Amino acid sequence: MEKKILFLDLDGTLLTDQKEITPENLEAIQKATSLGHAIVVCTGRPLISTARQVEKLGLTAPGCYAITSNGALIYDAYAKETIFYQGVHRDCIREAFDEAYKFHLHPQTYNQAGALCEHDTEEMKYYSSSTLLPYEVVEDVTKALDKDQDPIKLLFIDLHDRNHLDAFRQHMEPWAKKNHLDMFFSCDQYLEFLPEGINKGSGVRFISEYLNIPYENTLAAGDAENDITMLQAVKTPCVMINARSEMYPYGTYITEHDNNHSGIAEIIEKFML
Predict the structure, then answer these.
(1) Residue 25: helix, strand or coil by DSSP?
(2) Is residue 25 a contact partner of residue 56, using CB atoms and an 8 Å limit?
(3) Rounded CA gap, 72 and 86, in Å?
C-alpha cells in the first residue's frame, strides 16, 4: 500500500466548535497512522498552541509534522525541532499596530513565549482561551520581540464585525505590497499578515518534498480562506460542509458531516483506509 499524506486544518475542520476532537476522528487518525499514512496538522495557530494539540492527538511518532502559523513555522513533532521558519520583518510592526488602532481593531504579534499585545482586550482574552496560548500585555510590542528572530506573524481581530477587518485589509493593501506581506482571513474574526509567499500551500509543498511523497498521494481538509492555498497544493482537496459556501469550489469533495460530527473520520475512511 502506498503511503498517503493528509494535511488537516484544526479550527472548524478537525476540532469541534468547542475545540475538542471527537472520538471518531481520533480513532480514524490512529487507524491511518498505524497503516503507515502520514497526518500533518496544518494551522494558523502558533507552535506553542499547535504542539499541545499534536500531543493530545498522539501525533508525535517518527514522521509526524505540524505546519503552524499558516506555513511560517514547520515543526518535526517527533524530534521536537523546527525545520522551517520565516517571520515578518520587525521594522513594519509599529506602523501596522498604529493603523489597526485607527480602525478600532485589536492587533497582536508573537514571541517564543506566546502572544504580545499592548492592551488587555476582550479579543486577546478570547484568543488566548480558545487557543490555550499565553499572552503578555506590554507598553511597546516592538521592544518585547525575540532578539534573534522576527515574529512569526501579525494578527488583527474583530469578534463582532468582519466588515471592519475587510475595510482594514483594503486600506492596508498598498502598505502590505510595499512590505512584501500577504493578508488573508483564517476565520471571520481573524485577519493574518504573513511574509509574501508563505502560506499553508507553501508548507504543504515543503513537507511533501521533505518526505518524498508524490502529489498523487496528497490530501487536505479545510474550511476557511487561509486553507485555499493548502487545498490547491494537493491532489484530493476536501472542504468541510460547515465552510462558507464560497469555499466549496476549492474542494473536489465536500464532506457530508461537519466539524462537530467527525467529518475528518469520513474523509479518512473514504480516501485512506
Answers:
(1) helix
(2) no
(3) 5
Residues 118 and 105: their CA atoms lie apart, in Å, by 12
Q: Catalogue all structural domains in the chain, each as residue range(s) with its CATH number.
A: 5-85+198-271 (3.40.50.1000), 90-195 (3.30.1240.10)
Q: Which of 4, 14, 8 has the alpha carbon at shortest distance from 231?
A: 8
| Rounded alpha-carbon distances, angstroms, from residue 187 to 60, 66, 112, 145, 222 | 27, 19, 23, 25, 11
Contact between residue 142 and residue 172 where contact means Cβ atoms under 8 Å apart: no
pLDDT 10s digits, 52-75:
889 988 888 877 899 999 999 999
Burial class (CB in 10 A: 0-12, 13-18, 19+), 170: exposed
This prediction has a pTM of 0.87
Phi-psi map region of 111: left, alpha, beta (phi>0 left; psi -120 to 50 alpha): beta
Q: Is 187 helix (H, G, I), strand (E, B) or coil?
A: strand
Using one digit for the tens of pLDDT, what is the confidence trace for 208-232? 999 999 999 999 999 999 999 999 9
Per-residue confidence at 132, pLDDT binned at 50, 70, 90? confident
**DSSP assignment string, 225-250:** GGGHHHHHTSSEEEE-TTS-GGGGGG
Cell, residue 172 = 492596508
